[in-house]
Design brief:
This protein is an alpha/beta fold. Helix content is about 35%, strand content about 25%. The strands form 3 sheets. A 6-stranded mixed beta sheet has the order 6-7-8-3-9-10, with helices on both faces. Strands 2-1-4-5 form a 4-stranded antiparallel beta sheet, covered by helices on one side. A 4-stranded antiparallel beta sheet has the order 12-13-11-14, sandwiched between helices.
């Protein structure tokens, strides 16, 4: 451990080791770096990324299928999709935690293949599993991370005090982490990814399993972090509201492919109409009822687009009120078994439905915690 942490070290030594990341660039360095890269390259640049699981003699599963996107410096970018869509696989590859099958990735101008160690110095990562050590206090957890990044003691202590304050953990700083609530452990885990002042923060479903109050507190801190430190943040989430509230731009991923990309406002504006959703009663005649409903709804004047999904039919229209009444009249006349009808302005739910043909279900799974098994009594 002593060889890894380097218990002694000066501020100058720390800055020398992190000049590729944490220490700010001069204007000349920034200009030269920008001119050396292609004009369209992003701060995070992913091109034709593929990840296939399964070795010789095993079934091949393509978890990520030819994914390309860019993230600008200082942007709050979101990957939105259901469980199993490929979100975590992509973020683990970018953060060097998982190897790719093919494709190219550059982070802050650094090639993933040859500069993985340099990339790790400039990023922070908070995964779905809570990685803090339950036998250490909150303060000790953050201090340890700082020393692993070779930060000098004075700087670590200053940063730890700052994070404990902003994460509202100051009063519990000297308690062992296994005594913390789930929300407190998640905040401490988030702080661990921020100790070394990363240029880019990767968050893999950071609020899954949290209660609404704690989730809102995490959202507020992330907004503050992005605004005040102008940090580049890459968030994966299965929560539509979370992506809508936090992200400046979103890529919707489903079954390993990006199906839509843009700002939340742009994606919703792309629907360009009110959305009528008709849910059909489940039963033996469900498939037949849905087919009849799709034909009826599509023939109503004012409907610009109609789609069948796993529970029924959705329709887009410029005049939701009048069109809804006509749809209900025709469905009733044809005795289609309707369970529920709703009218709404476009949301990211409708965007996902339009591009995938089904609604996205959120799976509330409590985040796994590492290091909380052997508790002292």
């Amino acid at each position: 451990m002593a060889n890894t942490i380097e218990a002694s070290g000066s501020m100058q030594e720390y800055e020398r080791k992190t000049t590729s990341g944490v220490a700010p660039r001069t204007a000349v360095q920034t200009k030269k770096a920008a001119s050396a890269r292609p004009a369209k390259e992003g701060f995070i640049d992913v091109r034709n990324l593929v990840k296939v699981y399964g070795g010789p003699g095993q079934e091949k599963i393509k978890a990520v299928n030819d994914v390309s996107f860019t993230v600008a410096e200082g942007e709050f970018f979101g990957f939105l999709g259901p469980n199993g869509a490929g979100k975590s696989t992509v973020i683990k590859i970018i953060t060097t935690l998982l190897s790719k099958t093919s494709g190219s990735i550059r982070v802050a101008g650094l090639d993933l293949e040859s500069k993985g160690a340099d990339i790790r110095r400039i990023i922070g990562y908070t995964g779905q599993s809570i990685g803090v050590d339950g036998e250490l206090t909150g303060r000790e957890n953050l201090w340890l991370i700082g020393r692993l990044y070779h930060m000098p003691n004075a700087l670590v202590n200053e940063r730890v005090d700052e994070l404990l304050e902003v994460l509202q953990l100051k009063d519990a700083a000297n308690r062992r982490a296994y005594t913390y609530s789930g929300g407190m452990r998640r905040r401490l885990d988030l702080g661990a990814g921020l100790v070394h002042h990363p240029r880019i923060l990767f968050l893999d479903e950071p609020t899954t399993g949290l209660d609404p109050q704690t989730r809102n507190a995490v959202w507020e801190y992330l907004r503050k972090l992005h605004k005040e430190e102008r940090m580049t943040i890459f968030l994966t989430t299965q929560y539509m509201e979370e992506a809508d509230q936090l992200c400046q731009r979103i890529a919707i991923i489903d079954q390993g492919k990006i199906v839509a990309e843009g700002s939340p406002a742009q994606l919703k504006a792309g629907i360009g109409a009110d959305v009528i959703t008709v849910r059909i009663s489940q039963g033996e005649a469900f498939e037949q009822g849905r087919e009849r409903a799709l034909a009826i709804v599509g023939a109503v004047a004012g409907v610009t687009h109609s789609t069948a999904f796993d529970e029924g039919v959705s329709a887009h229209t410029a005049d939701g009120g009048a069109t809804l009444l006509e749809i209900l009249r025709r469905l009733d006349a044809e005795r289609v078994p309707v369970l529920q009808v709703s009218l709404a302005h476009p949301t990211l739910d409708e965007v996902f439905l339009q591009h995938t043909g089904r609604q996205m279900r959120v799976e509330e799974v409590k985040p796994m915690s590492r290091g909380f098994r052997n508790r002292r009594r």
